[in-house]
Amino acid sequence: MHKRILVVEDEASIRDMVAFALRKADMEVIHAADARAALVAISDTPPDLILLDWMLPGMTGLELARRLRGEQGTAEVPIIMLTARGEEMDRVNGLEAGVDDYVVKPFSTRELIARIKAVLRRAQGDDGAGSIESGGLRIDGPAHRVYAGDTQIEIGPTEYRLLHFFMTHAERVYSRAQLLDQVWGGSVYVEERTVDVHIRRLRKTLEPFGVDGLIQTVRGTGYRFSVNP
Ligand code: CA
């Protein structure tokens, strides 16, 4: 299966260079010169990943990323942002908008493709059996076990589900309501502070292994799993 990549970039020279490199790497390319064209392309043929230029005429790449994250059909589509050097300062903004990675211009197409492949792997979440490794933690899906290095961690069933969700959706912020929906299931009535209770337990479980910092509080928003402190 060819991965379909949507390239949103207003500079034709960069767009063409990227499209050429992606096709050579066996990927399918669709492109758009601005946010409006991107939205049309997305509703037409949903991509596996979006390469999004930060500075676009009209709606900026960041605004588009926020909008895509907020919509059901596109909330899970990975986004890699293309930024010029000076825009690195806004990295935090982008991460909060749910962007998966950054590539700073000028970039080599080889680096770009490596990043795309890494994000696609991560977006796939796990190996299909529910196993995943990140930040020094490893989940053995079939065995329902969690390891820090070689040591098995004793973990409760809710904390396990919470951790598994976080690890397969790393680097994104989730509100308490979203976590309830994703981890507890929307049909169950649970108060939002229940999430805080289990987050605390999860951190306590991870603390002896020095990896509790992977579960981060984003003030006023919610929580995320991140390998970046
Ligand atoms: Ca641009």
The quaternary state of the protein chains shown equals single chain
Query: Low-confidence stretches at least 5 residues in length (pLDDT < 50)?
Result: none
Q: Largest beta sheet: what is the strand line-up? A: 2-1-3-4-5
Number of strands: 11
Note down, in words, how this protein is organized.
By secondary structure, the chain is an alpha/beta fold. The protein folds into two domains: 4-123, 3-Layer(aba) Sandwich (Rossmann fold), CATH 3.40.50.2300; 131-225, Arc Repressor Mutant, subunit A, CATH 1.10.10.10. The protein is 39% helix and 20% strand. The protein is built from eight helices and eleven strands. The strands form three sheets. Strands 2-1-3-4-5 form a five-stranded parallel sheet, with helices on both faces. A hairpin with a 4-residue loop joins strand 7 (137-140) and strand 8. Helix 6 (157-168) packs across helix 8. The longest helix is centred in the middle third of the chain and has 15 residues, at 109-123. The chain is globular and about 55 Å long. The two termini are 35 Å apart. The model has no long low-confidence stretch (mean pLDDT 87). The site of calcium ion (CA) has 5 residues, from loops.
